[in-house]
Design goal:
Layout (H helix, E strand, L loop, with lengths): L4 H4 L4 E4 L1 H5 L5 E5 L6 H12 L3 E3 L9 H13 L2 E4 L2 H8 L1 H8 L3 E3 L4 H11 L4 H9 L2 H16 L6 E4 L4
Parallel strand pairs: 2-4, 2-5, 3-4
Antiparallel strand pairs: 1-5, 1-6
Length: 169
């Protein structure tokens, strides 16, 4: 059995072109990372600093029907504000016409390990063990693959301003 390093060890949290969001050159900022990595917490914090709306992609899952969920994910990435959610990676991977659009937006990629993310999700969902078990059964390898590919692709965009972030909230 192979142990994937990102299961156990945190990677660096990075921002790419965050200055474009701070300087109002871009009117949206994506926050991506493993489930339970702190996307919502960071999004709420940044909303208070930048006075921009927070768009949570998790709310799309309440719609139940797959087509409506996908449409909600796509609509969310086009809105102005701070967009947090792992589902940006689904749109990035499955909507080729939106790939360049997503690649050219400011982004924060949280480097939290899967173990740490799962632990944080368990703490957050103490009363909802069913949701925690669902998270643990989430296709970890697929999420890890998508996140790593997105990180690589986004870092290779010409003239990208890449910075390591240390976040204390």
């Amino acid at each position: 059995m192979n142990i994937i390093e990102s299961y156990l060890f945190d990677d660096k949290t990075i921002s790419i072109d965050l200055d474009k969001f701070k300087d109002n050159i871009s009117d949206r900022l994506f926050i991506v990372g493993f489930p339970g990595s702190g996307k919502s917490t960071l999004g709420k914090y940044l909303t208070n600093i930048y006075k921009k709306p927070l768009i949570s992609q998790d709310k799309c899952n309440d719609l139940k029907e797959k087509d409506k969920i996908r449409k909600c994910w796509i609509d969310s990435i086009k809105r102005k504000g701070i967009i947090e959610g792992i589902y940006t990676l689904n749109v990035y991977e499955k909507q080729p016409n939106l790939k360049n659009y997503i690649l050219n937006q400011p982004v924060i990629i949280l480097g939290t390990s899967m173990i740490n993310s799962a632990y944080q999700a368990k703490i957050r969902n103490e009363d909802n063990i069913k949701e925690f078990l669902h998270l643990m059964n989430f296709n970890i390898r697929r999420v890890n693959k998508r996140l790593n590919q997105f990180r690589k692709d986004r870092m290779n965009v010409p003239n990208a301003n890449i910075k390591e972030l240390i976040i204390w909230i």
